[in-house]
Amino acid sequence: MRPSTIDTDILVVGSGAGGAVTASTLAAAGRTVTVVEEGPWVDPDALDPFSIEEMVAKYRYRGASAALGAPVVAYAEGRCVGGSTEINSGLWHRAPGDLIDEWRNTYQIDEFTPDTIARYSERIEDDLGVSRLPGAPPPSSAMLERGATKLDWRAVEFARVFRYEASGRGTKQTMARTLLPRAVHDGAEVIPDCQVLKLLHHHDRVVGARCRRHLDTGQDEVLTINAEHVFVCGGAIQTPALLQRSGFRANIGNGLKLHPTIKIAARFPHPLDHGDVPMHRITEFSPHLSIGGSQSRRGHVALALAESGTEHTEAMEDWENVSIYYAAIRSDAGGRVMAVPGLRAPIVTYRLTEGDLSRLARGLVHLGEALLAAGATELYPSVTGAPVVRRPEELAQWWAAVTRTNANLMTVHMTSTVRIGEDRDRTGADSFGRVWGTANLRVNDAALVPDAPGVNPQASIMAIAARNCDHFLAGA
Ligand SMILES: Cc1cc2nc3c(=O)[nH]c(=O)nc-3n(C[C@H](O)[C@H](O)[C@H](O)COP(=O)(O)OP(=O)(O)OC[C@H]3O[C@@H](n4cnc5c(N)ncnc54)[C@H](O)[C@@H]3O)c2cc1C
Asked: Are 133 and 170 spatial neighbours (Cβ–Cβ below 8 Å)?
């Protein structure tokens, strides 16, 4: 590896939801910004959404990571320019106002009111384009609405970070399409294929970062970036891992929150769409339990059917009639992220409580009720050995089936590993993301969200990140 050096005013580590807001806001204010992204640049139009090729190119470890515990919770993160916004479903839900109040009081967060966060959310919505489908929802989404209506439950169509043409064709407004090009237009440099290995510091000041950059020639080089200010935006798992590797450990990585999610592969007597994800959510039991739909390409259907641990050959042959739905909970449990010397990936743990397992069983049964009401004929739960259900009276068998050994859980929502607030005993950073004990090191991503929001987190992350940037610009 040959060494090279770059000097910058502001170094942003990671280019996802938090990093892109940070880079674009600070570059627009005239600051010199360098963004380093571990993953590659992939043209947003190059790959089919939710395809295997996309998983290989844009996901960390091709989507296969796990929080250890009983049960294990599989999780996925983006690893490319634009981060997880390139692979997510774009569902947009502002942080609930009552939770903002609760977090402010619990962690003593300054200038953190529902109005403030709503104002920033609105600014981002205007900026990116957040809208509902211009026409009728696809069948996989309509099934959720139909099931909820039959049961007299609340269901809503969520807005998404999408812009629609007059033809109805929608384009997800990922960070690689929107804020990152804007940051570059305003003078920022984005360096892909470049992993920050360690932050360099002198007393309470971070002076830069040591990186490993993969070159087009196939070789790696050591890149040193000298910076006046550093914003770490690697996501709720990688951010605490990098901070720990760099010697920052106080309340870093120990408050991990997830939305544990249990699934059903539902077979219908007719084909469903498989190119998109359902936009409807059943909100009857929100915020502690939400019900929605997942990516359901052929490979996803195969995996979901296999997770039931029962015979599913016939259902797989009929996969175009099968779609995957989920119930996600707000969990009492917490987890940890631990960087371990010699290991490339951090160890992540999460221990569900008995209450969480009971909520998941309830979620599974309610989801089953909705899908049968919508006309599904066979339900395969992601619980090894649990019976396939065909009639509502059979659903009760699932209550006892959801156990620590049998439940196959996953999540794509990870938060809260560097909480913000003035309560130094319980937070890793001040009210605006400056890591305690440092003068110029800030976190600005999912790690800052003080608890699992019970809704899709991208809107909360972007609003909090934009607020923190304004605070930085006002004071720095
Ligand atoms: C499959 C999937 C579907 C989702 N669906 C939705 C949805 O519909 N709605 C919603 O609101 N949320 C959704 N989410 C969650 C949402 O996308 C994330 O919460 C959000 O993007 C997190 O933002 P972030 O900035 O914290 O991290 P990310 O967006 O994950 O970005 C972090 C970036 O930092 C890079 N990085 C990490 N460490 C380093 C390092 N050391 N050096 C350099 N670069 C580094 C990573 O490679 C990554 O690109 C989904 C997530 C996934 C994975």
From this structure: yes
Active site residues: 413
Same domain, 275 and 400: yes
Which pLDDT tens digit goes with each residue over 413-457? 999 999 999 999 999 999 999 999 999 999 999 999 999 999 999
Cα(145) to centroid(ligand 1), Å: 28
Collect contacts of 368-371 with beta carbons under 8 A, ≥24 apart: 368/264, 368/392, 368/395, 368/398, 369/147, 369/151, 369/395, 370/144, 370/147, 370/148, 370/151, 370/153, 370/282, 370/291, 370/325, 371/143, 371/147, 371/264, 371/266, 371/325
- Nearest of 158, 129, 154 to residue 293 by alpha carbon: 158
Q: Is 83 in the pocket of ligand 1 (CB under 6 A)?
A: yes
Model pTM score: 0.97
Mutate to test the pocket of ligand 1, among 13, 37, 73, 84 (most ligand atoms within 8 A of CB): 84
User: Six-digit token pair at 95?
Assistant: 């942080």
**Is the CB of residue 63 below 6 angstroms from any atom belonging to ligand 1?**
no
Give pLDDT, residue 476.
53
- Give the residue among 79, 87, 89 at the shortest CA–CA distance from 44: 87
Please report the atom of ligand 1 found closest to the CA of residue 89.
8
Domain count, the chain: 2
Query: Are residues 298 and 437 located together in one domain of the fold?
Result: no
Q: What pLDDT sits at residue 3?
A: 66
446 within ligand 1 shell (Cβ under 6 A): yes
Q: How far is the CA of 367 from the centre of ligand 1 (A)?
A: 27
Low-confidence ranges of the chain (pLDDT < 70): 1-3, 476
Residue with tokens 């009111």: 113
Q: Indicate if 191 and 230 belong to the same structural domain.
A: yes
Which contiguous run of DSSP H or E holds residue 410? strand 409-411
DSSP-assigned letters across all residues of 417-437 = SS-BSS-TTT-SB-TTSBBTT
Rounded-to-integer distance, Cα 240 and Cα 336, Å: 9
The pLDDT tens digits of the residues spanning 300-348 come to 999 999 999 999 999 999 999 999 999 999 999 999 999 999 999 999 9
Coil, strand or helix: which one is 39?
coil
pLDDT in tens, 36-77: 999 999 999 999 999 999 999 999 999 999 999 999 999 999
Last residue of a domain, one of 358, 376, 411: 411
- Domain endpoint, select from 369, 390, 411: 411
Q: Is 348 helix (H, G, I), strand (E, B) or coil?
A: strand
Ligand 1, atom 15, residue with closest C-alpha: 413
